[in-house]
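Listing S7. Sequence submitted for prediction.
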Amino acid sequence: MKQTLLGLLLMATAMVANAACHDAVVLVHGNTATPASWDNTLSALLAAGYSRSEIFLPDWGSKTCAACNNHDGSEEVPVRQAMTAALAQSCTGKIDVIGHSMGATLAAQQIVKLGIRGQVDTFVGIAGAFRGLYSCGIYPYNVWNSTCGTYGLSVSSPFLNDLYGNVFADKVYSIKSYMDEVVCSTGTCLVYGIHSSSIWYEDASYTFALGHFGLQSQTADLQVQLIQ
């Protein structure tokens, strides 16, 4: 009888432990933003049962010079460190990554550079410019700052060309809008006929009538659903 009770207790303990185990989550903010831009997502994750220790919020880039930030050098370090720490912390051995705007392309780059694609369960790119921004020019023409340059978001930049075709996770999703005042600032959201926020090989793409920043702050529940 005691052995039966002990067995049931151990089974129940294991079930509780498994139920509480989530992939660690890395949230990568956009150009000149801060981790606070993820407040709605953070609240939704906590409400879904995630612990604060399972959520990583790297703080990268200049907050005062949007044109100074790109995908090379000091901008990379906090994101790379967060992903490494998240993998070390994750009780599942995998992580989920959500990026907004330039943070989406920066996060994708770090997954490739770290060689951890097999350890990323879900990647969600929100309002990213995976195919470039016409407002940045078509490389190498009309490229007027670092954000649009070799390591930036001009259409067909060397950075984007190197990123293209890579797989970032077991499941890949994009969240986009045709009202995005950044991605669609020139009057079109399409780059060579495809929405720039769409990601090659994605499992699904979700479109909302929201602006660039609303896509991040007002889709928190969907973001959490996608990584579960």
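Caption to Listing S7: primary sequence and predicted structure tokens for the chain studied. The chain has seven helices and ten strands. Residues 5-18 have pLDDT under 50 and may be disordered.
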